[in-house]
Design goal:
Elements: E1 3-8, H1 14-25, E2 28-31, H2 36-42, H3 49-55, H4 59-63, H5 67-73, H6 82-91, E3 98-101, E4 116-121, H7 123-133, H8 146-171, E5 175-178, H9 184-194, H10 204-207
Parallel strand pairs: 1-3, 1-4, 2-3, 4-5
């Protein structure tokens, strides 16, 4: 399984960078966000109890809880169903290397951390990213108190980023702070360098 990994907090630019690097280097893209619904369906309640509980909740029950509770009980943040990510990757047919991305790629779970990087957005960068993509109110608007839900979600995501920062530091893993003013080109170059991808590799995997 030849995989590069891009994890990190929500709104950090993981998907954008992964798409750009996949196109530049002839890599296959694996988006962990895109398979969340399928993985929820395939998950085993015995090994993913928080996911099972989450699926049984209303929108208010999910998103109007205290941010710290949402952080500590959110199934993906706990690594539930991570084995399904590995199963998907192992089942891919032979081909070019894969670049996998998403917040579910937690430090300590990624099997090859030497080929991984975590993007850590500031709260300002995250909110600007959500606003620019039009997703700021996507979840919160489906609750009975959108303002409270949004504030809680943003705080939870900030706490998750803090947790990732602490974990990468403790494990000696590569992390990049993503701050306002950091362009997509610069961020892509930083990730490219962190993963050991060289511009001269572009197109090489297509010929292999």
């Amino acid at each position: 399984m030849d995989v590069y990994w891009i994890g990190g907090g929500s709104g950090a630019g993981k998907s954008t960078v992964a798409r750009r690097l996949a196109a530049r280097h002839g890599l296959r893209l694996y988006d962990t966000d895109a398979v969340m619904t399928e993985h929820a369906r395939r998950s085993d309640p015995a090994t993913s109890p928080q996911l099972a509980a989450f699926l049984a909740m209303s929108m208010d029950e999910r998103w109007l809880r205290p941010p710290r509770v949402m952080l500590d009980t959110f199934h993906w943040f706990r690594g539930e169903a991570f084995d399904l990510i590995l199963d998907d990757l192992a089942a891919l047919p032979d081909g070019p290397p894969v670049i996998a991305e998403g917040f579910r790629l937690l430090p300590g779970l990624v099997p090859d951390p030497a080929r991984a990087v975590w993007l850590l957005p500031t709260p300002q960068f995250r909110r600007a990213a959500f606003d620019s993509r039009g997703s700021t109110w996507q979840i919160a608007a489906r609750t009975s108190d959108p303002e409270r839900a949004l504030a809680g979600l943003l705080e939870r995501d900030g706490l998750f980023t803090d947790r990732l920062r602490a974990a990468t530091r403790e494990l000696g893993l590569t992390a990049i702070d993503v701050e306002p003013g950091l362009s997509e080109d610069h961020l892509t170059a930083l990730v490219e360098d962190a993963l050991g991808l060289k511009k001269s590799d572009a197109g090489h995997h297509r010929e292999a």
